Protein 1
Amino acid sequence: MSEHSRTITVHAPADVTFGYLSDARHLPNFMPRMRRVEPHDDGTVTVTAVVTPDGTRELEVQGTAWLEVDQEARAMRWGSERHSYRGSLTVEGDVESDVEGDIEGDAESTVEISLSTEHGDPATIDAGLDRALEAIAARIEARA
């Protein structure tokens, strides 16, 4: 199983950053192959994504994964035993917002994504994680 980990600094407080990321419905906004995510009350999500099993032809697939969100620790964990895949996301940093939720000063947070998988080219996976983190920062900073 290959292990991957990437981080990025986001110019927004940690509570704002994690508030956005912890809503599973936002995943398609920064995970390029995801099309839809539907959370369920039992801690699972139904995910629709596009894969290229032969490297050329795109195929839309649907699957179920588990998802755990720990608001206090600002951490998420997910995975699928069927596909030998698991990951985590943590947010650390400043929590500086006023009563109305406006950002005060130069608040920053650090987002780390870790992924373990038996599938895919490691360099391609790392590049995909970098693109996802860049999209996360852009989305959150545009909202802040």
Protein 2
Amino acid sequence: MTGRVVVIGVGNAFRRDDGVGPAVVEALRDHVPDDTVLAVSDGEVGRMLDLWHGADTVVVVEAVRGRPARPGRLHTLSVAQAAAQANASASTHGLGLGECFALAEALDRVPRELVVHAMEVADVELGTGLSEPVRSALPELIDRTATTVRKAHDHRS
């Protein structure tokens, strides 16, 4: 095991609330250990697998649509939970995390620990800036993600 910890903020900052994942990654730059890999992805399955290749712990931060919608509501999901939710078309992207996890499993590229921190969003139309409910919940999402990263680093020590 490498002990490598990777955080992937999935989303597009030019689709309003879909930019929540990249916003978390940017906020973490000065709040996690220096050897943490921080990356932004558009959610394309091959690129996601390349980003987490060789990592022991992967933390994915993603925007999702809930039914019924509760923008700003936070979820922390295991791989199985995230795959089930992603397969129910909850992702804001064409291909979701479910497809990514299935391919990782088929290729034997699932990290030892994979955690998904997701936020329900309101607006994924073209434009910049987060909606009020998402912006209000962002500090808690950043805190949850940073806590997961610190725990992963503590476990490898």
Protein 3
Amino acid sequence: MARQTSPKGGKPEALKMRMENTETIDFEIIELLFFSYRDFVSDPDAILAEIGFGRAHHRVVHFVNRNPGMTVADLLDTLKITKQSLARVLKQLIDSGYIRQIAGPEDRRQRKLYPTKMGRELALALAEPQSRRIERAFDGASPEVREGIKAFLRGMRNRQNAKAD
């Protein structure tokens, strides 16, 4: 949809009616996703803020812990960010002792990333409140409902980014 410009010489009219669902837009689902994400990241955000880190640090710590030995290139591909965006965050995590960067055994230019014990503990501390929140949301749900929600979340991913889980 093209962006509309305001009429010449006048202020745009203030719209006072709320947007309602349409045949193609479900605002309730959109809002539930906004609010659930806000709350899902709130506990880790508070933990990270105490040590001067943010969500980018969380993502790096999470994926390096889930895939020890992944290369910087793999991490860039997973996060879909630029090398420049990753560089500062990764340096802070390495300098703070949460991540180790080791040259590849075959190709010394390759940089493999590993969590340290401290990095593993941080990943677990960040994941525990999120896991509790997920379990509360699933309370009383059948295995079929759980699988349906996983399928929904997989379906939300960009098709070109989704890998077989």
